[in-house]
Specification:
- There is one protein chain.
- The protein has 169 residues and is α+β, with helices and mostly antiparallel strands.
- The protein has a domain at 53-169: Gamma-B Crystallin, domain 1 (Sandwich).
- It contains two helices and eleven strands.
- Strand 1 and strand 2 form a beta hairpin.
- It is globular, with a radius of gyration of 22 Å.
- Residues 1-30 form the signal peptide.
Length: 169
């Protein structure tokens, strides 16, 4: 059986459209949210890391907003440095995997204050000036700042940082 070139072209176009329709990612607004799972995740996080206040179903504030934890990446965001403007962020997994912690204060801070010591595996600096260095006690491990905004993998220092020191010019 010989298939005409016109029929082959039409079939290819039709198959292409079917692939687009059935394999396209679901838009963020169309995704369903399991609120009971989010509430359970929030409760579990607060039980393990007490002292915070839920500010929505995905974020927890510590010390009146000094430190914010975001439990899950927004729908459709995968392996992307997505720290909000005006903050520096650190992530519990390489390649910006959540949960994510964020700070903006200048100076040295002990990550144990928010139970984030020994958890940092990637970082993103999203401020207009300065930098932040990550330390293991007195030893500087790595720095992110305006000249080098991201560190997608803190290796070989994954889970080492227990202090941060933000330089604010």
């Amino acid at each position: 059986m010989v298939i005409s070139p016109i029929f082959r072209t039409a079939l290819s176009v039709m198959l292409g459209w079917l692939m687009v329709l059935f394999l396209a990612p679901v838009p963020a607004h169309a995704a369903t949210v399991d609120h009971s799972a989010l509430r359970s995740e929030m409760a579990n996080y607060l039980a393990e890391y007490p002292g915070g206040t839920a500010i929505n179903d995905n974020e927890i504030s510590y010390q009146n907003g000094t430190f914010i934890v975001t439990l899950r990446a927004p729908f459709g965001v995968l392996a992307t440095a997505d720290c909000p403007s005006g903050w520096y962020c650190f992530y519990e997994l390489p390649n910006f995997g959540y949960p994510r912690g964020r700070l903006s204060s200048c100076g040295r801070q002990n990550l144990a204050t928010w139970q984030w010591q020994d958890r940092v595996e990637s970082a993103h600096y999203n401020l207009s000036s300065g930098s932040v260095s990550f330390y293991y006690y007195g030893t500087k491990l790595f720095t992110v700042g305006t000249g080098n905004r991201v560190r997608s993998d803190a290796a070989p220092y994954r889970e080492w940082p227990n202090y941060v020191d933000r330089y604010c010019p």
